[in-house]
TrEMBL record:
<feature type="transmembrane region" description="Helical">
    <location>
        <begin position="119"/>
        <end position="136"/>
    </location>
</feature>
<dbReference type="GO" id="GO:0005886">
    <property type="term" value="C:plasma membrane"/>
</dbReference>
<keyword id="KW-0375">Hydrogen ion transport</keyword>
<feature type="transmembrane region" description="Helical">
    <location>
        <begin position="261"/>
        <end position="285"/>
    </location>
</feature>
<dbReference type="InterPro" id="IPR004878">
    <property type="entry name" value="Otopetrin"/>
</dbReference>
<protein>
    <submittedName>
        <fullName>Otopetrin-1</fullName>
    </submittedName>
</protein>
<feature type="transmembrane region" description="Helical">
    <location>
        <begin position="83"/>
        <end position="107"/>
    </location>
</feature>
<keyword id="KW-0406">Ion transport</keyword>
<feature type="transmembrane region" description="Helical">
    <location>
        <begin position="16"/>
        <end position="37"/>
    </location>
</feature>
<dbReference type="GO" id="GO:0015252">
    <property type="term" value="F:proton channel activity"/>
</dbReference>
<feature type="transmembrane region" description="Helical">
    <location>
        <begin position="43"/>
        <end position="62"/>
    </location>
</feature>
<keyword id="KW-0472">Membrane</keyword>
<keyword id="KW-1133">Transmembrane helix</keyword>
<keyword id="KW-0407">Ion channel</keyword>
<comment type="similarity">
    <text>Belongs to the otopetrin family.</text>
</comment>
<feature type="transmembrane region" description="Helical">
    <location>
        <begin position="344"/>
        <end position="369"/>
    </location>
</feature>
<dbReference type="Pfam" id="PF03189">
    <property type="entry name" value="Otopetrin"/>
</dbReference>
Amino acid sequence: GGSYPQKNAEILSSQYGINLFLAGLLLTFAWAVHAVGISKSHLLSYLITLMLIQLLWMLWYLCRSCTQRRLIRDKDTHAGARWLRCGITLFAVITLILDSFKMGYYIDFSNCLSPTEGIFPVTHAVHTILQVYFLWCHAKDIIQSFKTLERFGVIHSVFTNLLLWTNGVLTESKHQLNEHKERLITLGFGNITIVLDDHAPQCNCTTTTLCSIFSQGIYYLYPFNIEYHILASTMLYVLWKNIGRKVEHHQQHKTPFKFHGITVGMIFGLIVLTSTIAIVVVYLIQIGRSKIKSELALTMFYLHAIFVLALMCTAGIVALLIYRLEDRSLDNSKNPARKLDAELLVGTAAGSWLLSWGSILAIICAQAHPKYTWYNLPYSVLVIIEKYIQNLFIIESVHREQEKVNDNIKTLRIVTISRGSTLSLAPSYKEIYNGRAARDSGEVPCLFKGSVCRRENDGHGSAKEEMNQENNSVIHSASDFSFYSRTSVTSSKRRVLKNIAVFLFLCNLSLWIPPAFGCRPEYDNGLEEIVFGFEPWIIVVNLAMPFSIFYRMHSAASLFEVNCKT
């Protein structure tokens, strides 16, 4: 009976959040298409209102937590990992720099901009600071009081961050689209109508140099702002799912990140990361300069991406084969954070799959094929395959139970008694005590601390004593050899898996950089626009690209966890 009203509260709060999000989404869309009567100030006013409501709720929650700080509260040890909170803090710091750029931009264009464009970055900066503090202190909380009110407060925060993420994605996409339209002319696609979607202020800047720095710098910082809000929304969603949850109390093993034994994966990953940064720099410089330079830039990008994706597929297959050779059970306990991670991996991968299948169909159906477009075919196929393999590896890794030390494994010190009653201590060994020695000798083995096991039967002859001593020595040697053989094999497998996880972690960071900073061949290829039409394909790219970008960052975070757990 007690769970029924709480289930209703969960349903009501989720519906409230969805309606909040849909209203903001429609307002964002109306501003994007220049709907009559809808301006940017209306959208920003709505977002400011949502942030102020969330600020009030967070302040109330923090004050109530301070008054109850002596109470022992349940915590979800899987939620809000330290590395995740460090990551969101880094993105938040860069977001604050973005807000300062927006403030400077507003000051320079204050004569023709709405006051909301000056209020928004200030409110957003305060919202960012308090939200990061809130997540650092309370991301692991399992709320058991004021549950109905807290559900509405947390879900409001989730969809507020999703709307801020949507606003950032749209603003950044419109900027990328304008640059893309200009570059298409250099590739020879003159039959596509080029109409720039300009939201620039209709007045002159007071300081030209500063305005240029602010306007250009804002769009280079947007990728970090986008990642910040999507990470915040996922952490808050886990907090919402944990409200009223009953947790089994068990010891959670800490899994710190260690650099030992991952040299190979680190070296290869850093090589991929460095080469990717170089490719992105050359791509952004060459694309749009001339038709030949643009085609060379696209060819260079595709060849590099094909090589990296092939390596990632190979590494993922090797890791899955190692898992098939092991016989370890999966952890199927209830875990909202782990479940959300798996759902986000598969859900956001659909964005890349959509773009890849669009490119494959365009290559098949197109009548003319420039040479560089053929490299798009293996690239698109490998994107699909690589995500299949990587998702399977990550999901299985986070669900595998960690190795536990068997209770039968003991640390023994072997004591041998010589004929002259002299005690000699052999080195310590780790062996499995399972009673076989007892059955072989007909006696019960004696385990002791700081004392000597005396013989129970003094009448035994010296010949039998020597024989038993030799048998025990053989048993100890065989058991010791067997234990260290198994340990060596397990250690080798673990070392290979850790190197694979680190390599894939750095590769996913590398593949996040190109689309996040404007290196998007899906825009510049041009073949898809001819087959599907310019506007339909651009809509598909603008919808799918944010999920594709988020997938890489989320995969990198998941692989970091896999490396710590392995």
